[in-house]
Amino acid sequence: MVIEPLVERDWPEVRRIYEEGIATGFSTFETETPPWDVWDRSHMEHPRIVARLMQRDRVAGWAALSPVSDRCVGTTLLARLVEESEEAGVWTLQGGVFPENRNSRSLFERHGFREVGIRERLGRLDGTWRDVLLLERRSRTVAVD
Prior knowledge:
By secondary structure, the chain is α+β, with helices and mostly antiparallel strands.
């Protein structure tokens, strides 16, 4: 597996993964994937990364920063996202997961995120109000004046 920048030509594969997350009902409030131009405008230009399986050149996962993001990422992607965010001078990262998504909670904790609190009834999914657990990570390497 290799980690590379996410570029527009990756969008069909990224969209496929996004749709899989939507189908679980545990990853996002979104009910459909946005078109590329909408997604592109709503995410920071850097870092945006994909994990690519070398043998098939297929995207296995992706990560990107937005001002407030609730997307789940894998261990390798989250580690790289943290690294690249610090290189870009980002001091604080926030994540949001559904409280019952134990795998994502554990993943964030392993990468230095702490649970800040519950945002109660943040949005509706399929007609049901859902809470979101807010997680936060402060960089130890980015200087803050």
